[in-house]
Design brief:
The complex is a heterodimer of chains A (about 160) and B (about 190). By secondary structure, chain A is mostly helical. Helix content of chain A is about 90%, strand content about 0%.
């Protein structure tokens, strides 16, 4: 028999189990396997190997699910306790932004006045005004970052 | 199925404690088995098992229900293992696992007993175990996902964050390695597609 036929059969045996094959290919393969003992053996070995893999026993550690459930519940509780704090932080941040927008024209004039009286270059007091605007967001970001770092540290320690 | 996933996604977003308990029970075997194959250590697999569920709690809102939950779960677990490997200044999974560029390596240190070694009975060890141990983890991982978890190729690609062609290539090579590794069959016989 042509070597190419065996190679095709072997390819189809694997393809059938991995991706699936068309009905026409399946028919061809079935016919080939009826005639070719070597390829039929390969198909059998493949099925045996997969059966062995599927049947491998993996005993679960005792109480793994219960321990995990306990840890998850603890963490959930911790998150619930922290949630109001975080919400408060964002509310304060939002209020600060809202106030910032409302008072921006006055603050601009104040910065301008102080800048002129102190002889500070325009660029500097303009930058000061910009910084004043970003402070709430920077503070909020720093708090969140520190919180995340602390949590990561706690996780590392727990592990 | 899509509705189930949507309901699951909503429950995870709410951090529903009963749902989480139920999911932990439901997926404990499959997740532990996958982690065992990845880490080659029962202790580590246990740690990662717990960490995975903590991560599910924390990031449950990211699951949108479009895909199977187990695919998302396995991806979280795999990413945790990769992060840990990186933290330990070891090679990343992908560096380890690109057999197309050369001989693939095992995840765990060579002197550690493999998960197969740990779980098989003495009788089983005599035949199957010795041969299956020879299959590199990179192949075992896709074999487990495809033939034990019965995930689709796209889902596996999603978990591995690898192209579909890579998944297929690993599966063909893995299947060939698995077949070749069976007792009573000289390795190297036959060829993968």
């Amino acid at each position: 028999m042509n070597e190419n036929l065996h190679a095709r059969a072997e390819k189809l045996i694997a393809q059938d189990r991995i991706e699936g094959i068309a009905q026409s290919e399946r028919d061809w393969l079935a016919a080939h396997l009826r005639e070719c003992a070597a390829c039929a053996q390969i198909a059998q070995q493949t099925d045996d190997a997969l059966r062995t893999l599927r049947g491998l026993p993996v005993p679960l550690p005792r109480g793994l699910a219960a321990r995990t459930q306990f840890r998850v519940q603890l963490r959930a509780q911790e998150m619930r306790e922290r949630e109001p704090k975080r919400r408060l932080l964002w509310i304060m941040c939002a209020m600060s932004w809202a106030l910032g927008i409302a008072t921006a024209p006055y603050v601009w004039r104040a910065f301008e006045w102080v800048g002129e009286h102190l002889g500070v270059p325009r660029l500097v007091w303009e930058m000061g005004f910009g910084l004043w605007w970003t402070i709430p967001a920077l503070v909020a970001a720093a708090v969140v970052l520190l919180e995340n770092l602390r949590q990561a540290h706690e996780r590392d320690q727990a592990r | 199925m899509a509705d189930d996933n949507k309901a699951l996604a909503q429950g995870l977003k709410r951090r529903d404690p009963d749902l989480l308990d139920q999911l932990i029970e439901q997926y404990q075997f499959r997740l532990f088995r996958y982690l065992l194959y990845l880490t080659s250590s029962r202790e580590r697999a246990e740690d990662f098992f717990q960490e995975t569920w903590i991560r599910v709690l924390e990031r449950g809102h990211q699951y949108d229900g479009k895909y199977k939950f187990e695919a998302w779960l396995f991806r979280i677990a795999r990413n945790l293992v990769i992060d840990w490997q990186r933290q330990k200044k070891m090679q990343s999974l992908d560096e380890l696992t690109d057999p197309e560029d050369g001989t693939p390596k095992e995840f765990a240190a060579l002197n550690q007993p493999s998960p197969l070694n740990l779980v098989l009975t003495a009788e089983q060890k005599s035949g199957v175990h010795a041969s299956l141990e020879k299959i590199p983890t990179v192949y075992r991982e896709v074999l487990v996902l495809r033939f034990q978890e019965e995930l689709g190729l796209e889902e596996i690609a999603g978990i591995l964050a690898a192209p579909l062609s890579t998944v297929k290539s690993r599966l063909y090579r893995g299947l060939e390695a698995l077949r070749g590794a069976m007792p009573g069959r000289p390795s190297g016989q036959g060829s993968a597609a």
